[in-house]
Each structure stands twice: as structure tokens, then as C-alpha cells.
Amino acid sequence: MNIRVKAIIITTMASFLSPFVLSATNVALPKIGMEFLLDTATIGWIQNAFLLATAAILIPVGRWTDAIGRKKVLLLGLIIYAIASLMTSISPSAFMLIFSRIIQGVGGAMLATTSIAIITSVFLPHERGKFLGINAASIYLAIACGPFFGGMLTELMGWRSIFAINFIIALIIIIITYTIKQEWKGKEMRKFDLQGSILYGISLIAIIFGMTSVNTLITAIGLIFLIIFIVWENRIAHPILEVKIFIRNRAFSFASFSALINYSATYALSFIISLYLQIVRGLSAGVAGTILLFQPIVQAILSPMAGRLSDKFSPRKIASMGMGMNSIGLFLFSTLKSTTEISAIIMLLIFMGIGFAFFASPNTNAIMSSVKSESYGMASATLSLMRVVGQTLSIALATLILSIFVGPNLLNPLYMEYFMSGARFSFLTFSAMCLFGTILSALGTMKKNK
Description:
The protein is 82% helix and 0% strand. It is mainly alpha-helical.
């Protein structure tokens, strides 16, 4: 087995782990809550702990990855992820479970920063998009399989089996990774920016926590720390994040912010549609999950093709087209009614899946192709950061809008029309965000910086 085959196997499998465990755990949350007698807020932290831990160290880990070696960091991340998965599967209390999820999020951040960086290091520019598309397909496949297998594992063997399976998969990847002798590095790190890493972590945790809990004060504190972080990074010689790259490299900055907007505008789609199908239409969780499968399956099928197209044509133009499709699809969802045909919803989900596929892998190709090889880890970490923050903000925004329209009585049949109004307004808001993102992505095609 040559190094290229091993590289695509380990990166594809590593990219599968985090989105799979996130989507699978969503189905298991009610069972976990019943076992530990948890309230809704604590149940939410089972997922938020993972996301916050991942987001809080992505950029420092990305810088570290370029300096000491991408394979080493991947291997270390897999070991941490495997240990945390085992800890989660045997957790005797909610505290231990959430703590284990934090550790698992740290390992997940290492997997996220190294997978794309390794693919970009191994494969030549003219073939890179195809393999980035395969990597994106593994993520979408994980999202698609998560609810189904998570539900099946929870019913047959209990929720702990989800994390036990993750432990086994991580062990397999560790064994394959260990057989790879080659290492890929960027530029040497003369000094690690500890102060910048702390400022970055505090700012991001405060911003995300403040927005998800609708706490203006904490969000403001996070923004203040973010400004301090940016000022600090501009002044020191060896920053963890080269802030100036967002000014100098127009292609990188436009593609990165386009990714943030796209995930912020689209990730909550399945959350809202799942509520709609179960609450308004009275469908079971299993049937609702089956309907929602259409979108990620289409994404998984088309992502490699979209990646190959981005090797032959401008990846930024293809990504702009994909986000434009998302904007149209979300606008059409804003016309949703309580009597809309299920077949029409499926067709819209398929349309959104096509838009997702033609945005994600080409946009990833655009970001990674806009930087030099010594910065692949930093670029990969930035992309992962935009995805995680976007996903978190998307759910927070959808929850905020629905709560404004419905209040605390979401499951009460008397409030179904209020829920529908909130859902339609959410989709209209997300459509406008995607339209803005499409314009931003298109502007990035006007000037090519490498």
C-alpha cells in the first residue's frame, strides 16, 4: 500500500469520526438525559462541550501542526480521541461524561486541522480538488449515517456503544497511521505564542457561549478579547494566526468568510425541518430522519465530482454557484406550509444537497490553494474554525428566532402557527445571509492571490 493510498484512507476515516459522533449522539441525548436525570441545559452541554473545546484550540493546533509535523499531530489527536471515546463510553456520571467530551473535542480539533493539510501536502494541485471532495464526502456520509446508526446502536446496545465504536475506529486509524514513515511539515516554529493562544481561546469560548445562551454581556466580553487578540497577533513576531493574511490574501479571506456565512446560514436547516416533520406533520423520529437523509446523501455522492470540477475550473466560481443554490433553496423553504407535500420537501432537500456539494469541496480547494505549503495547517485550522463556529451560530440563531415567535411552548399544538411563522422567518433570514455570502464569494474570484 503506497503512501498516497494510506494518506487518503487515514484522512478520510479521521474526518468521518467527529461529525459521525456528533450526529449519532443527537439521537442518543434523550436516553443519556434519562439515565443521568439531566435537565435540558445540561443535556445541551454534552454536545456544546465538544464543539467549544474543538473551536477553542483549532488555530493554536493548526500553527503547531505546521511546525512539528502533520502526521505527528494527527497520530496524537487520534490517541487523545480514542482515550476520550473510551472514557465517555464508561462514564459513571454526567460530569465525567461532559469532561470526556471536552477531551474528545481536543482530539477532534487535531483531526480537523491535520486531515485537509495532509491531503493538500500529498496530492498535486491539479488533482487536489478530487481528493478534497472525497474528504468532504466522508464528512457528509458521517452526518447522514450518524442518526440512523446512532439510533440503532442506542436501541440495541445502549448509547455507550456509540462511543465504544468510535474508540475501535480510532484504534484502526492509529495502526494505519503508525505505519506511515513520511512526515509533512511547514515552517519551523521558533516560539509558541502562548499569550495569543489564551486570548484566542477566551474570546472564542465567550463569544460562542454568549451567543448560544443569548447573553449579551458575555458575548461583548468575548468580542473585547477578540480585538485584544487581533492587536496582539499584529504586534508579535511569531503569531499563532497571521492576521495580516486576511488583508494581504484576498482569495483566502473571501473564501474563509464565505465558509463561515454558508455554515451559519445552512447548518440549522435539518434542525428546523426535523422539528417541522415531527411537531407539525406528526411523523416519527425514524421517518423524519429518513427524509432528512436525502440532503447529506446527495452531498456525499456529488462532492467528489464537484472537487474534480474545481481542479479544472475556478474553484471560487463553482463555490459561488453552490452558495447561490443554497440561497435559492432556503428562500423556497421560507414558503413552507403545514400542508406542503413531503415529496416537495424531499426535492428541496436534494436541491440543497447539490448546493452544499458544489460549495464545500471547491471552497476548501480555493482556501488551501491560496496559501503556501508551510501554512497548510493554519489554513486547514481556519477552515475548520469557520465550520464549527458557523454550525454553532446557526443553531443559536435558529433557536433565538423560534423562541421569539413561539416562546417556551414549542411542543404545544396551539402554537403551531407561531412555529411555522418562526421557521419561515428563519429560512428567509438564512437565504439573505447566503445571498450575501454568494456575493462575497464571487468578489473573491476577481483577484487571485497566492
